Amino acid sequence: SAMSKEQRVLQYVQQNASRGDPDSVLAAVDKFGWETEWAMNLGDVKGAILDRFVKETAPQTMLELGTYMGYSAIRIARLLPETAKFMTVEFDQENAAVAREMIEFAGLQNRIIQITSDTADVIPQLKTKYDVETLDMVFIDHWKDVYVRDIKLLETNKLLRKGTVVVADNIIKPGAPEYAEYVRTCGKYDSTFHESRFEYSNDDIDGLEKSVFRG
Ligand SMILES: O=c1[nH]cnc2c(O)cc(-c3ccc(F)cc3)c(Cl)c12
Ligand SMILES: [Mg+2]
Fold it and tell me: Could you give the CA distance from residue 74 to residue 43 in angstroms, rounded to a whole number?
């Protein structure tokens, strides 16, 4: 059967990037996104902002909600030490399969724990099944309608500590208004909005919300 868009991106990466070179993988995905087919990767513009947050935070324990094709997982993992524990969760089996191959091509499979499941099932298991005490950093980029459900799950499962940095994509497009309202007004976070551009777009606005748990 014909290839999916995600498989076409993976093929382009395999034919145009260098195996074991994460930056060349990111560059290939972004070139494809700008020049050939739009896809909902974090992208180069918002990606540079996330890079800065990851470098500033230097997390030893990191969780991503929403792997998609693995672009932001590669983006994050390339900045982490070998000793870091980084888990990424994807619900869609086909996307998870593409991500696994993309991450392997980038040579980062030893630095990323890929979980194919519903985040609502995984979050309550992180302490027991994945040996997590608390998270230093979280990147939320799965589905806007479950952002609030999942950050509340992180709270009730005692996975956040004073200073945990929670970053969320798509605050403007498609928009996560309930999430923005929650983190900015619940009193548990110091939250800042970082305006940027929607992925592979010169015109559309989007941005990342960075919320530091007060503990
Ligand atoms: O579902 C998403 N998960 C994680 N990131 C996403 C993203 O970065 C963008 C979009 C999106 C927005 C507007 C549009 F017209 C088409 C797609 C989605 Cl829908 C997601
Ligand atoms: Mg996104």
Answer: 12
* DSSP assigned state of 163: T
Establish whether residue 196 lines the binding site of ligand 1, counting it when its CB lies within 6 angstroms of any ligand atom.
no
Active-site residue flag, 210: no
Identify which ligand lies nearest to the alpha carbon of 38. Answer: 1
Per-residue pLDDT reduced to its tens digit, 174-197: 999 999 999 999 999 999 999 999
Ligand 1 and 174: CB distance under 6 A: yes
User: What would the pLDDT profile of 88-136 be if each residue is shown by its tens digit?
Assistant: 999 999 999 999 999 999 999 999 999 999 999 999 999 999 999 999 9
Active site residue: 6, 64, 150, 199, which one?
199
Strand, helix or coil at 168? strand
Please state, in angstroms and rounded to a whole number, the distance separating the CA atoms of residues 35 and 44. 13
Helices (H) and strands (E) in the chain, counts: 9, 7
45, 91, 170: residue to mutate for ligand 1 pocket, most atoms within 8 A of CB:
170
Residue 51, exposed/middle/buried by CB under 10 A (0-12, 13-18, 19+)?
A: middle
Is residue 175 within 6 Å of ligand 1 at its C-beta?
no
Burial, 97: exposed, middle or buried (Cβ in 10 Å; 0-12, 13-18, 19+)?
middle
Alpha carbon 123 to chain centroid distance?
15
The complex's ipTM? Answer: 0.99
Distance separating alpha carbons of residues 35 and 77, to the nearest angstrom: 26
